[in-house]
Amino acid sequence: MKKIYTLLTVFFASISLLSAQTANIKGTVTDTLNKQNLQNTVVSLLKAKDSVLVKFTRSDKNGNFEMKNLPAGNFLLMISYPSYADYMFPVKLNENSAEDIGIVKLTLKSRLLQDVLVRAKIAAVRMKGDTIEYNADSFKVREGASVEEMLRKMPGLQVDKDGNITAQGTKVEKVLVDGEEFFGDDPTMATKNIQADAIDKVQVFDKKSDQAAFTGIDDGSKTKTLNLTLKDDKKKGYFGKIELGSDLRNRWNNNVMVNSFRAKRKFSAYGIMSTTGKTGLNWEERGKYGESNNLEQSEDGGFYFSFNNDDEFDNYGGFSGEGIPTTWSAGTQYSQKFNEDKQNVNGSYRYNKQNTQGSGNSVSQSILPGSIFYNRESRTAYSTKQRHSVNGTYEYQVDSFTSVKIRANGYQGNQKSFTSFTGETLDNNGNKVNSLRSSSAQGDNSSLNSNFLLRRRFKKPGRTVSLALDQQQKYINTTGFLYSINQFSDKNTIKNIDTVDQKKINEVINSGFYTRAAYTEPVVKNLFVELSYGLRFSNSESKKLSYDRNGVEKYENLNDTFSNNYKFYVVTNSGGMVWRYNNKKVTTSAGGDVAQANFQQTNILRPSELNYKYTNFFPKANFRYKFNATSQFGINYNGNTRQPGIEQIQPVRDNTNPLNVAIGNADLKQEFHHNINLNFNSYKVLKQRGFYSYASFNTTANSISTNETTITSGNSAGTRTYQYINLNGNYNGYSGGGYNRKVVKLDMSFNLGFDISVNRNNNIVNTLNNNVLTSIKNTTNNNSYGINFGTNKYKEKKFDFNYYSDIKYNSSQSTVNPQARTSYYTHSHNLYLNITLPYKFEFNSNVNANFRQKTDLFTGNNNIILWNAYAGKKFLKNEKAMISIRANDLLDQNRGYNRYISSTVLREDTYQTLRRYFLLTFTWNFIKNPGGSAPSTP
Prior knowledge:
By secondary structure, this protein is mainly beta. It contains six helices and 51 strands. The chain has a 26-stranded antiparallel beta barrel. The protein has a six-stranded mixed beta sheet with strand order 8-9-15-16-13-14. It has a four-stranded antiparallel beta sheet with strand order 3-2-5-6. Strand 26 and strand 27 form a beta hairpin. The protein is globular, with a radius of gyration of 32 Å. The N terminus and C terminus are likely disordered.
C-alpha cells in the first residue's frame, strides 16, 4: 500500500510540475460599435518566426476565450470575425505564465480608423487552404488607380505591359468578380477597368474542374484563377469611369464603363472609341472579336482536335501592334441570382469594329546545306472587320442533390483586307528573285458553342453521376484575289518571270458533338474510383477553289493544282477508370482512358476515300503534398494525342505566297504527347516573403513537322515548298522560380526570379541543285536563359515607385549549317513613377526600355526607349476627377519590332506603329453607394 501511495504521489507531483511549466492565455472579444460581446470569434495563436498555427479556439456566448497548456516562446495572437478587421498583436509567453489580455475591441471594416489600418497591414497576405488571399487595402495605390496597378504590388504576382498576369510562375487564365465571370471569359475587362478601391480581397487559387467541384474529389485538373471580391459598400449603387481624350486632330481615346449592383443583381456596360491602340479588352489579341480563330476541342479521354480556320488571306487576323488601329467597341454584362439562390443567370453581349492600316519591313536568313538565302521584304496592309458576340450561362440547383448548368456562346462577323508585298531574295551563288505580290479578301465568319451538364449527388458521400453534352460549330467563307509577279535572275541575267493571277474562294465548316457520362464511388475512406464513357463526333470540311483569269477580266478557269474540296470525319469512343486518394495533406490519382478513333478522309474534287483506326491508351497521374497551410508541392503527368488539322492533311497546294508553297499530306498520323509538370510554392504570411518554382517538360512522338525543299539553281532558284510529315525527337521544356520579400525597415518589396526555356525541333531540309536532291534531317535547338528583378515602394499621398527588369540570353543552332549559329542578349527595363504634388497636382512617368544585341544578320539598331508620361490636376469631391496632358512616346523612338527564330529561318520584323502624340484628357471616377460619396457633376 505504501508503494502504491508513493507512486501516486510521484505521479501527481510530476503532473503538477509539468502543468507549472505551461502557459495559459485568455481574454474577451467585443465590438466598438454596439459594445456587445462577440460569440464564436476565431482566436489563433501563430509562431512569430514562421506564422505556423500552434493552436486555435473560439469565444463562447459571452465572448470569452481561453487557451491552456501552451509552450513558452514568441507568438502572434490573431482574432478574426466576419465583417470586422483582424486584430493581431505579439505575445511573449514564459513558463508558468497566465496571460489575461483583457477586452479586445474589434472594429467594423466600414468604420476602420487609420491606426487600425496600420495594425491590419500585418495580415496583408494569408493562406486559406489552397487559396492565397491578398487584403486589397494593404497595398496602397494612387487615387483612381485600376486593379491592374494594384496587382503589380502584390508579392508573387507579375503583370506585363499587355496585362497578362502570372501567379507563382503560372499564367492566370481566368479573372472572376465575386466568383462570377465578368463579360464572358474576358480577363482584363475587370483588371483594367475596375478601380482598386472597390476591391476588398484578391484571391488566387487553382480552380478545380466542374466535375471535381461537384463530386468533392480532386481530379488534378486546375485552372489558375484570380477572383476579385468587391467591398460590401460597393455592391449597392453604382460606380464607374469616364475618360475623354483628344489631340484635337486625328488622335482620340474615349471610353466609359459603368457598374451597377443591387442585392444579387449585377449590371455593367462599357464603350470604347480610340485611335491610340486601345483595341479591346482581352489578353489575347486574336480574341478581340469573341472566339479565337483556332478552335481546339478537348475531351477527358486525352484527344485534342485542332481546327485551324485562319483564312489564307487573313494576314492580320487581330491587331498585334502592327499598324495604326481605329476601334469602336461596346458591351453589356448582366447577372442575377434568384429563387433563394437556386437559379443564376449570367450573360453578356459585345460589339467590336476595327480598321487597321500600316506598313512594315522584314529581313530574314534561310539556312540550307551549303548555302544561305537572304531576303528583304516590305509590305503595306489595310483591314476592316466587325463582330457581334454573345455569351450566356444558366445554373439551376434543382434540389440539394441535383443541378443543371447550360452554357452557350457565339459570334457573327465579317472582314475585308488588302495586303501588298515587295521583296528581294539573294543567295551566296548570285541567284536573285525580285517579287511583287498583292492579295485581297472579304468574307463572313460565325461560331456557336453550347454545353449542357446534368449532375446528381447521392446520400452516400462521394457517390455521384453526371452527364455532359457539348456542341461546337464554326463557319468561315471568304472570296479573294491573288496577284503575284516573281522575276528570277542569275546575277544580271533575267531567266524567268512567273505570274499568278487568281480568284480564291475558301469555305471552312467545323462541327462537333460530344457526350460524356461519369460515375464516382467511394471505395474506402479517402479512396474513390471514377468510371467514365465518352462519345465524340467531329466533322471538318474545307473547300479551296482557285480560278485563273481567262483574259477578259473574268475568273472562270478552275486551277486543279490549287483547288480541292476535302472532308475529315472522326468518331471516337472512349472509356476510362481513375483512382483518387484525398486527405488533408496528400492528393493523388492514377488511371487512364482507352479510346478508339475511326477516321474517314474524303476527297470530293478528286474522288477518293481513306479510312483508318487508332486505339490509344491515355495514362494520367498526379500527386500533391501540403507541407503546411502555406507550402505545397505538386507533380502531374498526362499523355494525350493531337490529331492533324484539316489544313495539314488536305492534299492541295497553297500558293498564297508563290515563293513559299505549302502542301497537305493525307497520310499524316496523330501525335502523342507526354507532359510532366512540377511546382512548389511556399509563402510566410506574417514575414511577407515567399518562394515558388515550377518546371514542365513535353516530348512528342510522331510530331507533325515539315519536309521542305528549296530550289537553288535554274529558272526557279529561291522557290520553297514544304509538306507536313511525322518525325520523332521533338521536345520542349521550361523552368523558373522566384523569391519575393517585404523589407519592413525600408517599407519596400523586392522580388528576384529566373526562367529557362529549351526547345528541340526536327524537320527535313532538301535542296534541289541541277536536278540533284540533297536531303538532311535538321535538328534545331532554341534555348533561352533569363533572370528578373523587381522592387516597389509607396508613400501615401507622396509617391508610387515600381521597377522591373528582365535579362535574357538567347541561342539557336541548326545541324543543317552549324556555322550559322545565332546568339544574342536582350534586356528590358520598366520604370513606373507617380508623384503627388501640392495643390492636387499629379505627375506620372512610365519608361519601358528594350535593348537587343546586334548580330551578324541583324545589324540595325533596334534599341527602343518608350517613355509615356502625364501631368494632371485632380478636382471634385474626393479628388475623383482629373484634367491631364498625356504624352505617348516622348522621345519619338517607338517602332514595332519582332525577332523570330525557327528551324531554318532567322527573321527580324520592323513595322509601323504609334509614335509621339499628346492628348488632353478628362478622367472621372464616379461612385454612388451607401459606403461612398455621391458623384459630382463636372
